Amino acid sequence: KQEVTQIPAALSVPEGENLVLNCSFTDSAIYNLQWFRQDPGKGLTSLLLIQSSQREQTSGRLNASLDKSSGRSTLYIAASQPGDSATYLCAVLDDKIIFGKGTRLHILP
Amino acid sequence: GAVVSQHPSWVICKSGTSVKIECRSLDFQATTMFWYRQFPKQSLMLMATSNEGSKATYEQGVEKDKFLINHASLTLSTLTVTSAHPEDSSFYICSARDPGRGISGANVLTFGAGSRLTVL
To answer: Which of A36, A41, A99 is opposite residue B116, by nearest beta carbon?
Structure first.
């Protein structure tokens, strides 16, 4: 049974710092891994999608890596801004999509 | 890009009533749609997989008679919460798979904005 774990559960960092969010999964037989952002009371915004054959994807200040063999992914956020404050979810797709519990990120002005 | 619309975005109802939530794929045909539920400060949990023209597949622990899913067309799936109770209050999100996006995109899901249900 696929399980997705995100560490840390919550994180507060000063504005301008670079940070890394971690995601691990137990079954490496996945089609892809996605990172999402969720603002309070809102739906999901897809940030980055990494196919199983890829090792990383970049979009602006965001970089996501995927190491299927070790069951790990990281989301790197460069030069953090207060607007980055949100919950970040990772999800893997095998025969269905399984979400982690998320990391609540707070960027301190 | 692919867009999934959910309606209503929020709904308040009395205990014992039924509530229908719609999930529409606006610019593509979705043969498969997924319904999720998210309780406060919890992760999204998959409730069921909805396939156009056939019965939905429910996850373990999800009552099929309480959460009725209908996927009658390639652009619309509905979730009806029957005889809703306060414990059904939650954030419900749907997603759709666009098979027309080719092999690399076939497993990409597009999410709706969610529907917040409050049962009094």
So the answer is: A41
B27-58: string of b/e by CB count within 10 Å (b at 16+)? ebebbbbbbbbbeeeebbbbbbbbebeeebbb
* Token code pair at residue A8: 């840390």
Are β-strands A32-38 and A44-51 bridged in parallel, bridged antiparallel, or unpaired?
Answer: antiparallel
Give whole-number Cα distances, A11 to A6, A83, A84, B9, B28, in Å. 12, 14, 12, 29, 38
Residues B95, A46: Cα–Cα separation, whole Å: 12
- Separation between Cα atoms, residue B81 and residue B65, nearest integer Å: 9
Residue B45 touches chain A, beta carbons under 8 Å: yes
Q: Contact, A69 vs A81, CB < 8 A? A: no
Contact between chains at B45 and A99 (C-beta distance less than 8 A): yes
- Enter the tokens of residue A84: 């980055």
Tokens of B56: 């939905």
CB B1 within 8 A of CB B59: no
Does residue B111 belong to the interface with chain A, where contact is any CB pair within 8 Å? yes
A96 neighbourhood in chain B, CB within 8 Å: 34, 46, 49
Six token digits for residue A61: 């200040």
Provide the 10 A C-beta neighbour count for residue B117. 21
Name the band, by pLDDT with cuts 50, 70 and 90, for residue A33: very high
Give tens-digit pLDDT for B64-115: 999 999 998 889 999 999 999 999 999 999 998 766 655 444 556 788 889 9
